[in-house]
Amino acid sequence: MTAPTRYREITVSGPPFELGCQLGEDAREEVRGFAAIALDRVNKTVPISRAKAMAVASASLPYVEGYAPDMLQELRGVAHSSGVSLEELILLQIRNQLQPEKDAGCTSFALAPHTPAHGSVVGQNWDNDPALDPFTVVLTRQPAGKPALMTITQAGLIAYIGLNSEGLGLCMNTLPAPSRPLGVPHYFTVRGIFEATSLEGAVKAVSRAERAIPANIIIASPQGPADLEVTMDQVHLLRDQSLVTHTNHCLHPDLVPINADFPELIQSGPRKARIDHLLQAAGGPLGIETLKQALRDHQDYPCSICRHPNDHPTNGFWVSVFSVIIEADQGRMHLSRGNPCTQPYEVYSLN
User: Model confidence at 315, in pLDDT bands (50, 70, 90)?
Assistant: First the structure.
């Protein structure tokens, strides 16, 4: 049987609770399925009891309420129509807080516009658990009074990788650095970025949160490409006029010493060197097809930019579950459902 190449598309709109109700109804099976397996998949890498995980989820609620009450209302709407409890939905958002040494490794880039035909672009391979594919959708939200956003996401998450109607696009990478048990879960700050209209607004959306974990967020914006290396207490901004790349280790001079304290995530250094080489060697404006070829690269296979299953005892099942290239100023995402070396890129548009 041929593997599907396109994700299901869902569009919801309205004020927060109504938007969530529509999502919970339209994606009921995906939300329920994701909630049913989420903790089991976490336990493949980090053993944790359901009681402990749910305690972290419940204790995270006040942080969410303080940061973004509208987002919490949206999740209440999802809970109302899907039959998945609010606490279980919060558990979906905080899974990465339960994993102090994360094994996901992603390779990403952001480019400045070269010509009207080559606009603002951000992209990456998302190396993750392939068991989440059945619960993954392309979701367009049209929230009342805020920018529209389109994300590639597991149904039930408040935000994920994607773009908004203001020309902001983002991808994400794990960033090994100190963390704490509780704070505003990462995906809520990502949603805060989608509610911004500029790079400055994006930085403020992350900075105002009392964060639990470090993260890396790479952005295409009307103000150019940028990367946010986010720690618990600071947001470090990396800028370049034309190209920014990132994998899974700290690059900002203030944070580089942290790298010595954390194990490298699945060949982060070699992947950074490889994506830099591929994009610099291409020369000239980097078109979409050139970027696709870079994301299909197999040097150091199977732990390559295009990642495949291998015999690593804890992270060998992680693969490039999708590859995404986002034309932020054009409102388009190019997505491969599965490894980009075997699956075609399909185009999705923010209407």
Answer: confident
